[in-house]
Design brief:
By secondary structure, this protein is mainly α. It has a domain of about 40 residues. Helix content is about 70%, strand content about 0%. It starts with 12 loop residues before the first helix and ends in a 12-residue tail after the last helix. Keywords: Membrane, Transmembrane, Transmembrane helix.
């Protein structure tokens, strides 16, 4: 009589290591998602900041070109 060996179906260490590997994988995925979201947020904030500075510079340049008074100190009148 042959006795079937249970080793090919499931190894004894696989069920024990699978839950810890699964939770570690979930933690890794969450870490990657949070890190990439933070990097993307930083990039968007930097681009908006640069755009705001460029808009402010363009507005002051167009105001100076049109002869409008600047937002600097008031001009002294004689």
């Amino acid at each position: 009589m042959e006795t079937p060996s249970p080793a090919p179906r499931t190894s004894p260490s696989t069920p024990a290591s699978r839950p810890s590997g699964g939770s570690a994988g979930k933690i890794l995925v969450v870490f990657i998602v949070v890190t990439s979201a933070a990097i993307a947020g930083t990039i968007v904030a930097m681009r908006l900041s640069v755009r705001a500075k460029m808009n402010a510079a363009a507005a002051s340049a167009s105001a100076a070109a049109s002869g409008a008074p600047s937002a600097g100190p008031p001009a002294s009148r004689p």
